Amino acid sequence: MASRPLSYINSDSSDLESDSNSETEGEPPTKRQKQSHNWIRVKCFPTGKEALDFVKGEKLWRMSGKHDGLQGRKISYNCKYSKLCGAKVYLLFKSDSQVTELYNTTSEHTHDPKCRDLTASTKEKVIQLISDGVTKPKIILTRIRECGLPEPPAKVLKNFLCNFRRKQGNHVYR
Ligand SMILES: [Zn+2]
Questions:
Q1: 61 Cα: distance to centroid of ligand 1 (angstroms)
Q2: Does the pTM exceed 0.85?
Q3: How many A from CA of 2 to the centre of ligand 1?
Q4: Contacts from 152-157 at CB under 8 Å and sequence distance 24+?
Q5: Residues within 5 Å of ion ligand 1 by Cβ?
Q6: Model confidence at 52: pLDDT above 70
Q7: Within-domain flag for 60
Q8: Does residue 130 sit in the same domain as residue 73?
Q9: Considering the domain boundaries, does residue 89 fall inside one?
Q10: Same structural domain for residues 75 and 43?
């Protein structure tokens, strides 16, 4: 079977969970699969690189497995908050062209947003506050409350700020 080399994929990436995810379109789901997902093709990319950049850019996914099938190489991702979350994606690097397809489960995120993350609206507000120069968790919480947005537990907010800072890298927040 054709599996073209994907040099830009870290072949020995350590964050790859050893998950022999073997679902391939056309194949009946194997018995050991507990969950069955409905997959829809949501996007097509002219190259694998663009597809990978897109998935990375969403910052929502953690790679869970690779599988070489007849149609090409498939890279699966779980929701980064929980692999039990119903929202998953995979990329199909077509074996017969550069075209790479992105598939999503039809499921919404089912991870517990209260425990693990801010709601989308709160997150938006927090990012806006940070860009306005508000970086103290206490003040951020007050502002969130003032806006009537769902108030996250302080720990969750701190986690978010921490991660946000790390992603921003060169910016320094106090
Ligand atoms: Zn999720």
A1: 9
A2: no
A3: 33
A4: 152/114, 152/118, 152/119, 152/122, 153/114, 156/114, 156/115, 156/116, 156/117, 156/118, 157/118, 157/126
A5: 79, 81, 85, 87, 109, 111
A6: yes
A7: yes
A8: no
A9: yes
A10: yes
